[in-house]
Write a structure and sequence with these properties.
Number of strands: 27
CATH architecture of the largest domain: 3-Layer(aba) Sandwich
CATH class of the largest domain: Alpha Beta
Shape: globular
Strand order of the largest sheet: 13-23-24-25-21-26-27
Distance between the termini: 92 Å
Radius of gyration: 37 Å
Helix content: 40-55%
Number of helices: 34
Structural class: alpha/beta
Length: 947
């Protein structure tokens, strides 16, 4: 490699800059730069490059991060792709087949930063590490290269480093398997297995093919693996891609149910899976492909696995993909966490607690008994403010035990991961004590009692071992040493004493040499190239080079302003220092291995403990937000009731408080017969389906969404923003609010609306909750009205679900007289001098106007436009629902009649075109030329205006 390239690389830029080459095939000269190009192999390439090509051939679908000293280097196409993706300099190194070899690189200490950017862009990365020191390679000969091999494949679903992960979000790797088809067409069901390798969280289940989009969005995997035959279905690929997941094809042979059962047993350390419930063949096939993929990417290392949790439509509230996006459960429509329901209710103080909260919000329950157990825990902590505060204060210091365990199991953990387990055990003991002390003889509710039981036997022996062994704040990397506490290992203390005392010996040697030579500026120094050496200013070096002392001092190196020497005594002392330092570091590595093994032996128990602490943080956080925002405990049962009194929108309410723009106006919603525990209301009518009318900006969409969000919160086990709430369990939630096109799939806005409406009508049951807004607005008026009319009838007669149906088609309100379970409600407004005031209050009755022109005024439409719109509206209202043809409109509306050259009489009380033109003029903004043109225009209008 040319010296110019070496100089470029000394500037520290992320091009592989500044790397001290560790390859024995690259001889190191003064200052660490390559002294010459390495010898070529018979094929005309260096041994190092030959090694790279061999390893790259084994990993063709990955960017190869090839470790060379302090840098990860990339070559050929990998270098071009990485340089473009990372925005770093692309350079070159040597030639291959007569062409320059493109090259770029990143420093090892900043590798995580660049890996994160590559993974987010969908790249897979193979990390190739040096498996020996350069000195060991040189023992095999001058042409030997350092042994290297891939130690890990990084993909979006197999990350474990905190720097690459969101502490508050799961990172699922999901395997998708289509069960064998009984005939032509798509499979009826699909099996999914999902694993967060960073925590061991494991989930399996089956869904209908129609529910796949919602299930993918619920799981939010960062990577999905599937067989080619399934990925050949473009609709499947699109649904997965829309969720933001990376698609990875794997061989169909990987989906083996027998292998899946065997791997799952091995991972859980059991001989039989019966204790975890029945698994279908499809689920086990998906599990098999998932665990094989993990084994491949982790090079045979096994992560910690928690017992698999079953998630099926039978035990959770099903929410389709469109409804999740519409309701903004985990992300707002802009893709941000802020503005979502999760952001509004998240008061957790730990990453694991935040992940647990997000998981509950994504998967609300359907079992009233299970929901009640969660609500009991929230209620207990809601009532005991002192206990809640003490628990939250203690949990703030909780590290992420689950992710630390995973890194240790995969042999990429460090001293801080051991410290995380130690500190987590201490936090668990304190929380167990607080729960025990906080009962006051009342007794803990079920969930909290179970948490306390899982925290009580929190491994006191392991905690004591880790406390005795580790310093309070260990280093991040085990290779740095210094993490074992003094007094834990006598032999380690001895090695450290020798190492540290040798430093004093070096200081004594320096004093001795100063006295012997009389050179006061003599220093004993150290660097990684020369080791220890004696340095004196160049002007004072002569006595050591040619005087009586020359026999004791041997010349090592001449610098611009200094000369370096060594002595036999210094060399011997350095050997002792190196030996003691190496021994101390080796002993610390032994201690680390022993402690990691001790932690691994209790991995299952520690995983349960970590999960218990996450649940406790989640329960305490829900109690905190309930107390802070004035939420109440909902009543849930197996009825079809849906009675919300004083309901509020959790996100909008907090947004209003943040900007201090007034209190949120609460509203009732009763979609079934009154529940005996609920107060009656005179403001609204009880019916299974509400037709909601009223102007835009009056709060219809907010009202619709808030009731859907209250149902979600209640079934996830949270208090709700209302004065009271009684909800019969909802099996499926549909929300079609808002509209957007889907150009990638060739769908217009109206087509998207119809597809989503069709899904609702085909899947909603009598236990579902349906939220519909403005069905039919994307087509002609009568077409849209007809569709909306038929949809309401179908919901009432066939689906028989609880529904809120917002519309501007006032003709639909007539259905309340025909259909027994349809009621009209409207958003209250007040008119004032041709303007409207929104009261945001729901009342019984129907709106007779939409006030669209007034809303246009509020939006800033020009006055001439709103005035003209009022004329057109007045004429259309005269037709009493009939559609006048275009010619009739042209004849009756003054402006268009003028355009045709026909005389007309201005409408009484309405401004003439001349008056409108005059009102629109802003004299101060006119140039002389523009003013002249306006005069000609006014003259022309005056000639046409008979008045």
């Amino acid at each position: 490699m040319a010296r110019e390239l070496g100089k470029q690389r000394g500037q520290g830029s992320p091009t592989g800059a500044g790397a001290a080459r560790s390859d024995a095939a690259v001889p190191i000269g003064v200052g660490g730069e390559p002294a010459a190009e390495p010898p070529l192999t018979p094929g005309g390439i260096t041994p190092s490059m030959a090694q790279f090509l061999k390893i790259k051939a084994a990993n063709p679908d990955c960017l190869l991060f090839y470790r060379m000293g302090d840098f990860y280097e990339l070559f050929f196409e990998d270098a071009v792709a990485a340089a473009n993706a990372l925005g770093i300099v692309l350079t070159k190194r040597g030639k291959h087949l007569g062409n320059d070899i493109p090259m770029c690189g990143v420093p090892v200490h900043r590798a995580d930063e660049y890996l994160q950017r590559l993974i987010r862009q969908g790249f897979r990365v193979a990390v190739c590490e040096q498996l020996e020191e350069p000195a060991e390679a040189r023992k095999r000969g001058s042409k030997a290269v350092v042994r290297r091999n891939v130690v890990r494949l990084l993909t979006p679903g197999t990350l474990t480093e905190d720097s690459l992960l969101d502490a508050k979000a799961r990172n699922y790797l999901t395997a998708l398997f289509d069960t064998p088809r009984s005939g032509a067409g798509r499979p009826a069901t699909l099996a999914l297995a999902s694993l967060d390798i960073s925590t061991g969280e494991f989930e399996v289940g089956e869904v209908a093919a129609s529910d796949l989009p919602g299930e993918i969005v619920r799981l939010s995997p960062s990577e999905v693996i599937a067989a080619d035959r399934l990925l050949a279905d473009q609709s499947v690929r699109t649904r997965i891609a829309v969720a933001g997941a990376t698609l990875t094809p794997v061989p169909l042979a990987s989906f083996d149910s027998l292998a899946g059962a065997r791997l799952l047993k091995a991972g859980l350390g059991v001989a039989d899976l019966a204790a975890f419930g029945p698994f279908s063949r499809g689920e086990l096939a998906a599990v098999g492909a998932l665990l094989k993929y993990v084994e491949l990417t982790q090079m045979g290392k096994a992560p910690c696995l928690r017992p698999p949790r079953r998630a099926t439509p039978a035990n959770r509230l099903v929410i389709d993909a469109a409804s999740r996006a519409s309701l903004e459960l985990l992300r707002s429509l802009s893709g941000e966490r802020e503005g979502s329901l999760l952001h509004a209710i998240d008061r957790t103080v730990t990453g694991p607690g935040a992940r647990e909260l997000a998981a509950r919000l994504s998967s609300p329950l359907r079992d009233p008994a299970a929901i009640t157990v969660r609500l009991d825990a929230v209620c207990f902590l809601h009532q005991d403010e002192t206990l809640r505060g003490d628990l939250r204060g203690t949990l703030r210091a909780l590290p992420d035990i689950a992710r630390a365990l995973s890194r240790l199991a995969l042999q990429r953990g460090g001293p801080r991961d051991l410290a995380a387990v130690r500190d987590g055990l201490s936090t668990a003991a304190r929380c167990a004590s607080l729960l025990s002390e906080g009962t006051c003889g009342i007794g803990l509710p079920g969930v909290l009692a179970g948490i306390a039981q899982r925290l009580a036997p929190c491994g006191s022996g392991l905690a004591q071992l880790l406390s005795r062994a580790l310093v309070d704040a260990p280093a991040h990397q085990r290779r740095d040493g210094g993490f074992v506490r003094a007094g834990f290992r006598p032999d380690l203390d001895e090695a450290r004493w020798l190492r540290d005392d040798s430093r004093k010996v070096m200081a004594a040697l320096e004093s001795k040499y100063v006295e012997a030579t009389g050179i006061r500026s003599l220093k004993v120094r150290h660097n990684n190239i020369l080791g220890f050496y004696i340095e004196v200013p160049a002007a004072q070096a002569t006595p050591l080079s040619s005087g009586p002392l020359a026999g004791n001092f041997r010349h090592r190196q001449t610098m611009a302003g200094a000369v370096r020497f060594t002595t036999e005594e210094l060399v011997e002392t350095e050997s002792r220092i190196i030996a003691s330092a190496d021994r101390a570091l080796a002993l610390e590595q032994e201690v680390f291995t022993e402690l990691a093994a001790a932690v691994g032996s209790k991995a299952q128990a520690l995983g349960e403990l970590a999960a218990a602490l996450a649940e406790l943080d989640c329960e305490a956080g829900l109690a905190e937000v309930a107390a802070e925002q004035g939420y109440v405990r909902p009543v849930l049962d197996d009825s079809i009731a849906f009675e919300i009194r004083g309901g509020r929108h959790a996100v909008v309410e907090q947004a209003l408080k943040a900007v201090k723009s007034g209190a949120f106006i609460e509203n009732d919603c009763t979609l079934a017969a009154a529940h005996p525990q609920m107060p009656s209301s005179d403001e609204v009518t009880e019916a299974r389906l509400w037709l909601v009318t009223g102007p835009n900006m009056a709060g219809k969409s907010t009202f619709l969404r808030q009731n859907a969000l209250i149902a979600v919160l209640a079934q996830m086990g949270s208090f709700v923003p209302a004065r009271s709430a009684c909800i019969g369990i909802v099996d499926r939630l549909f929300s079609r609010v808002g509209a957007a096109d889907d150009l990638a799939r060739g769908r217009s806005t109206f087509m998207v609306e119809m597809v989503e409406t069709a899904a609702i009508l085909n899947q909603a049951t009598d236990r579902s909750l349906v939220i519909l807004d403005e069905i039919g607005r994307g087509t002609a008026t009568f077409d849209g009205l007809s569709i909306a009319w038929a949809v309401v009838e179908h919901l009432h007669e066939v689906n028989r679900c609880r529904a809120l149906f917002a519309t501007h088609y006032h003709e639909l309100t007539a259905l309340a007289r025909r259909l027994s379970q349809v009621a009209n409600v409207t958003m209250q407004v007040r008119e004032w001098r041709d303007d409207i005031v929104f009261l945001h209050k729901v009342k019984s009755g129907a709106a007779d106007r939409s006030y669209g022109i007034q809303v246009g005024k509020l939006a800033g439409l020009p006055k001439v436009v709103t005035a003209r719109a009022a004329e057109v509206l007045a004429l259309l209202e005269k037709t009493q629902g009939k559609a006048p043809d275009g010619e009739a409109l042209l004849a009756d509306l003054p402006l268009f009649a003028a355009a045709r050259g026909a005389p007309h009489t201005p409408t009484a009380g309405a401004p003439s075109p001349l008056e409108e033109a005059l009102a629109a003029i802003s004299p101060d903004e006119l140039t002389p030329k523009a003013a002249l043109e306006v005069l000609y225009r006014l003259k022309e209008l005056a000639g046409r205006d008979p008045s």
